[in-house]
Write a structure and sequence with these properties.
Shape of chain A: globular
Number of strands of chain B: 19
Oligomer: heterodimer
Distance between the termini of chain A: 8 Å
Number of strands of chain A: 2
Radius of gyration of chain A: 24 Å
Shape of chain B: globular
Structural class of chain B: alpha+beta
CATH topology of the domain at 86-282 in chain A: MetI-like fold
Structural class of chain A: mainly alpha
Helix content of chain B: 25-40%
Strand content of chain A: under 5%
Chain lengths: ~325, ~525
């Protein structure tokens, strides 16, 4: 087991190097950062001096090795635009995205799993049919449309919830929290719902498909035939068996939520990692973009690893097969 | 049984988010405080007044810092930290008499030494505002409240050109190791501010929120009634509009032209439209010997022929562009700066008429009776509806046989493309930083010369000896009539040569709650000192 984790971790270093390399190769097409950093009256030779000072005129390989070297030394550099340390910018944006992702995940699980069971157990029922219809809407509407519709309905027309930003937050060390702040959760509802909608439909449909399959298996039929109470059969025996593949997919999806909540964050002006990335693209803030991408690469590697390990914990067959 | 429980569970889960929200509609703002909230698309990236010469930064910091002079509602120069000024009697330059009894937000007294320090800081190697001080040779502290600014030649416009030169306290900068703008990493002045202005920076979270409170010790009469002002950048324009309509934001700038009707239809909101000082124009590659994007013309650049440039001019129906693409919110422009600004050439006020027949005739005379094809380069996120304007231009040019192939770029790539001459014709907007006719001549028309810092935005490389000869004269001419005659001569040259095709002056569109009363200045600066919330 320990060797397995170690091997996976060492592989991840190469994954991240590859991410960094690709990102760096693409940045040359991202535009000219110096024109974004200076005003219109700045003379061209001063711009050129800045370009040289930032090392932008160096060959690609030199820039890349310098970047990797600095990363290894824990130096994440400074934003071209705001001159803030990039590590601090990512640290400040992480809690917003983390909480948004967790809440969206929780919503999608708390609603998606029961809804999936319901639609599997009573596929022809009215409730199931209407839930299925709703999820069809959820999966086919783009996130920004659901976001704008939610804002318009609950923010503008009804005036119940804030339309943008994080609102009230409390700080616990460097982590800023909406959930723990009085009234802070109100700001979280709309973006979390908007982000959760797609995950929710995915979870529900997965649970439904798995559940229907499990319900057809012999041990369920046998249990029912023996007269075990129905709810016990469904919750104790059918549900855990249908959740194993669901867990894998959801784990991977969580990485996606964190990394790609960009659209939701943009629509709700949610000051998280996605907004940070969008802004750094807009202003060609190369240090922020590169560190962001490497960080996301790391996140995916960790989540993948965690999912693999969890899989082994939950499913005894995996453990037995790997001989431990 | 189970089915019922599950149905209920699903329902509860589905409505949980919305149902519980009803209980929290109580407001979290205090009753007597007047809090004003506003949003724009671009967060000022620094609080350092000498680090970036860009409108979002200078506009924001003008609420916190002050210069020797400032602009009033009509954009005229008026006393600020200097109470008066006069040309030096011996030698070239200006003497400024400073206001006494002014303190910085931290309590430091304002003296002539702070002016000298702000000059040193503004001309330091890492400053982005050095262009303001190009004519300055020295700054001399005469006494605590008198400063002489010496220039290399008589400079009648100097007081007008330093309205954004903000004065920083020497002792504060030295105590906080911020005597020059930050280069690699931020310094104290990047996120903190200590000006003399009407508002004090009370908190700053870059990219998220910036709060200001009134300066209770400000020297001037209060014209606002605010107790706090909160700025939030909202990058997505539809989000900003929703925030306005839901009452969370009091003012949004800018509002997309297509949403103007929606705001006006909403009760309790108004659109404040005015003209910005920015003229949108088309430029040509005067120096290019051939077209790079043509499929039918090789080896020559037809745009080097003034008849072809005039044909382009007369083929474009600017009124249609204004009415359709700009929804009637813009004004036609005949020069490189909008009518009404200092030095605007009234004798050259008329535009060439829209006349496709004349345009075709000119093309025939120039040897292109059937027109030709070429590449038109445009930004797609820099000016209001820039891409749509370019599409309209493309179809109008096609009517006279000029086949423009349109390429659009986001602004982060656009200037680089222009610098590398990757265009046959391009779109440019220009707002004169000094609000004087000399500014566009210096940047857009005079022959490019890096050393003399001339023509740095003259991408096409237009060169005219008479313009180059006149420019230093209009920079130093003290007699207004003589100076205007010189400017008129240049304006006529620009028009006769069709150096650019000026199209229209771009509008400013702000949307706000009816309860807000303020002044919209044509430079798009947002001045909190005129804001009242009723």
């Amino acid at each position: 087991m320990g060797f397995y984790v170690l091997r996976r971790l060492s592989q991840s270093v190469f994954v991240m190097l590859a991410v960094a390399f690709l990102a760096f190769a693409l940045f040359r097409f991202a535009g000219d950062p110096v024109m974004q950093m200076t005003g219109v009256e700045t003379p061209p030779e001063q711009q050129q001096a800045i370009r040289e000072q930032l090392g932008l005129t160096d060959p690609f390989v030199a820039q890349f090795t310098r970047f990797v070297g600095e990363l290894l030394r824990g130096d994440f550099g400074f934003s071209f635009r705001t001159r803030q340390p990039v590590a601090e910018m990512i640290r400040d944006a992480l809690p917003a995205t983390g909480e948004l992702g967790l809440v969206a995940m929780a919503i999608s699980l708390l609603v998606g799993i029961p809804a999936g069971m319901l639609t599997a157990l009573r596929p022809k029922g009215f409730a199931s049919q209407s839930v299925l219809l709703m999820t069809l809407v959820g999966v086919s509407l783009p996130t920004f449309v659901t976001g704008i519709v939610l804002i318009f309905l609950f923010g503008v027309v009804l005036g119940w919830l804030p339309t943008f930003g994080r609102g009230q937050t409390v700080s616990i060390g460097w982590w800023t929290s909406n959930l723990l702040a009085r009234g802070g959760w109100r700001s979280l509802i709309l973006p979390a719902l908007s982000l959760a909608l797609y995950q929710l439909t995915l979870t529900m449909r997965l649970v439904r498909a798995q559940m229907m399959e499990v319900l057809r298996t012999d041990h369920i039929r046998f249990a029912l035939a023996r007269g075990v109470p129905r709810w016990r059969v469904y919750v104790r025996h059918a549900l855990p068996n249908s959740l194993i593949p669901v867990m894998t997919v959801i784990g991977l999806q969580f990485g996606g939520i964190i990394a790609f909540s960009i659209v939701t964050e943009s629509v709700f002006q949610w000051p998280g990692l996605g907004l940070l990335l969008l802004r750094s693209i807009r202003f060609v803030d190369v240090p922020v973009m590169s560190v962001y991408l490497v960080f996301i690469g790391l996140l995916f590697v960790i989540i993948n690893l965690a999912v693999d390990l969890l899989y082994a914990v939950v499913d005894p067959r995996v453990r037995i097969r790997s001989g431990e | 049984m189970i089915r019922k429980i599950m149905t209920i569970l699903v329902l509860i889960a589905l409505i949980a988010g919305t149902a519980t929200a009803t209980g929290t509609s109580e407001s979290d703002s205090q009753s007597t405080d007047v809090v004003f909230r506003w949003a724009t698309t671009t967060d000022p990236q620094t609080m350092d007044p000498h680090a970036v010469n860009a409108a979002p930064v200078l506009s924001f910091l003008n609420n916190i810092y002050e210069g020797l002079v400032r602009r009033n509602e009509q954009m005229d120069i008026e006393p600020s930290l200097a109470t008066s000024w006069e040309p030096l009697s011996d030698g070239d330059g200006w003497r400024f008499f400073l206001r006494e009894g002014v303190t910085f937000h931290n309590g430091d007294a304002f003296t002539a030494d702070d002016v000298l320090f702000s000059y040193e800081r503004g001309t330091s190697e890492t400053s982005d505002v050095t262009s303001w001080f190009a004519p300055v040779t020295d700054v001399v502290v005469v006494d605590d409240f008198t400063v002489d600014i010496l220039t290399s030649a008589p400079n009648p416009l100097f007081p007008d050109s330093i309205a954004n030169w903000m004065i920083m306290s020497r002792s504060w900068a030295e105590e906080n190791a911020s005597t020059a703008p930050a280069t690699d990493q931020e310094n104290f002045a990047t996120r903190n501010a200590n000006g003399t202005g009407p508002f004090v920076l009370s908190s700053r979270s870059p990219g998220v929120e910036t709060r200001l409170v009134p300066n209770t010790a400000w020297w001037d009469d209060l014209e606002h009634n605010l107790s706090e002002a909160i700025y939030t950048p909202i990058e997505n324009q539809s989000t900003a509009l929703s925030a306005l309509l839901s009452g969370e934001i009091d003012l949004v700038n800018p509002v997309p032209l297509q949403d103007v009707d929606r705001v006006e239809a909403a009760p309790g909101f108004t659109v404040l439209g005015g003209l910005e000082t920015r003229v949108i124009m088309l430029g040509f590659g005067h120096e290019k010997e051939q077209l790079d994007y043509s499929t039918d013309v090789t080896g020559v650049n037809p745009f080097q022929d003034v008849r072809v440039r005039q044909a382009v001019y007369q083929a474009i129906n600017v009124d249609d562009i204004i009415n359709v693409v700009m929804r009637g919110q813009a004004e036609p422009a005949s020069q490189l700066l909008p009518a009404g600004l200092s030095g605007y050439s009234i004798v050259n006020d008329d535009r060439l008429p829209y006349d496709p027949v004349a345009s075709r005739r000119l093309l025939t005379e120039a040897g292109y009776p059937n027109g030709f094809s070429f590449g038109l380069m445009c930004p797609n996120d820099r000016y209001l509806n820039d891409e749509a304007v370019c599409r309209a231009v493309t179809s109008m040019l096609a009517d006279v046989g000029l086949q423009a192939e349109l390429t659009t770029h986001p602004v982060r790539n656009y200037w680089g493309e222009l610098r590398e001459d990757a265009y046959d014709m391009y779109l440019l907007g220009w707002s004169p930083g000094t609000f004087d006719a000399e500014h566009p001549i210096r940047f857009l028309v005079s022959t490019p010369n890096e050393e003399a810092r001339l023509g740095s935005w003259n991408y096409g490389g237009y060169s005219n000896a008479r313009v180059d000869e006149l420019l230093p004269e209009i920079q130093s001419e003290l007699d207004p009539a003589t100076r205007q005659a010189q400017i008129d001569e240049i304006a006529a040259i620009i028009q006769d040569d069709v150096v650019y095709v000026p199209m229209y002056t771009q509008p400013l569109i702000w949307a706000m709650a009816d309860s807000v009363d303020l002044v919209q200045r044509p430079d798009n600066f947002f001045m909190l000192r005129w804001v009242n919330v009723n």
